[in-house]
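Run log, item B.
One chain of 459 residues. Sequence copied directly from the ordering sheet:
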Amino acid sequence: MSDAGLARAQEKMRADGQPEAAIAVFSDYYRQLETGQTGLIREDTIEPLLDPPMLADVEVDEDAARDALDKTVIIKLNGGLGTSMGLDKAKNLLPLREGMTFLDIIVKQVLAARERYGVRLPLLLMNSFRTAADTEEALAAYPELARDGLPLGFVQNREPKLTADDLEPVEWPADPGLEWCPPGHGDLYIALQASGVLDQLIDNGYRYANVCNGDNLGTSPNPTIAGWFAASGAPYAAEVCRRTVNDRKGGHLAIRKADEQLILRDTAQTADDELHYFTDEHRHPFFHTNNLWFDLVVLRDALADRDSVLGLPLIRNEKTVDPADKTSTKVIQIESAMGAAVEVFEGATAICVGRDRFLPVKTTNELLLLRSDLYELDEAFRLVATTDATVKVNLDPDHYKLVHDFDARFPAPIGLRGATSFDVAGDWSFGQDISVVGAVSLDAEQAGPVADGTVLRGE
């Protein structure tokens, strides 16, 4: 490890056209890596978050809520390719329901909210260098979407992967694109600033941003939360949900003992010998949804005061340069979480929302659920649950993990409204008008086609 390794990484970023702000942030994290920092947050340094405000208790004047929403920009994270699901383009271009993709539904949610509340409500997508072109092409179908001369998206920065043994920029001639990685969603703030979009928003009278993952269609525009956030005067707010036994992997908010500041702790920031604390839904009862709100002016001022280095906690992510080849060179990807900005802003807060605002699709298990009759789209293109029941789905990853394989075996939505669980082992395929009732478990040894109209009944 030496100044030479950092210098070569900086040179590589400049040659690639990365902004100086992004290079400054990368350099700060590089120095932390050199000194052996891991980014771990020890349990004895924090207190659990136990009593955030509840959205269900919030009352906001309709005019105040509408005014706040009119000053809000919706930002969706759109950098992921969905490679874990076998996709090779923007994950949000995946068809979901009624011939619409995730992106179609996002756009229609925004357009419906504009019409219903009479607000401007621009939509911005934070794309990666891999998703920008496909997304721009898809958005051409919505010429009415643009607002106030703002772009429909901006591109996340990228940085070199570093060899794990000496922190040199990795070289991979077989596919030079694999030498690069996104810096995590914490790059949102730098990308907004460096692209000029942050200043454009403020100059056009926008004050608040609502950011969430593009694959979470539960986060449709919400004037009540916008009004609550504006009235709170807080610079930043995170949406959290109450944890269940099925929510042990997601990050959670906590209160740092040293200064009583809210912070975010992710799995990668938890020591192995303390994971039992992290996964304890009773000790840490609220998980972070990755839906957040922040004041655009406060962010601009903070970036200016800190020379673009907000100081989000380091996430050291150990990978191989080719994710599909576990024998390829071991690398370190420097990342940060956008939700970690909660600790940057004094007075940051949180609000507990319902599970209807947390409907992410990370695997084909969730894809099956959201395509089923457990949900329907309302007139505002919001996904609305048709039952209070929770259905646990577990599909055999050997046959259903990749979307191509999943679609071949589930060519049509299935009925899950009468189900309690659906466990599929082996290579089954399903026809039209299939429904599941009770707890159904399909055994690999009997795997085969399920005929049209079949009702699968379990306990």
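Observations after the first pass:
- The longest strand covers residues 286-295.
- The domain at 364-457 is CATH 2.160.10.10 (UDP N-Acetylglucosamine Acyltransferase; domain 1).
Flagged for discussion on Thursday.
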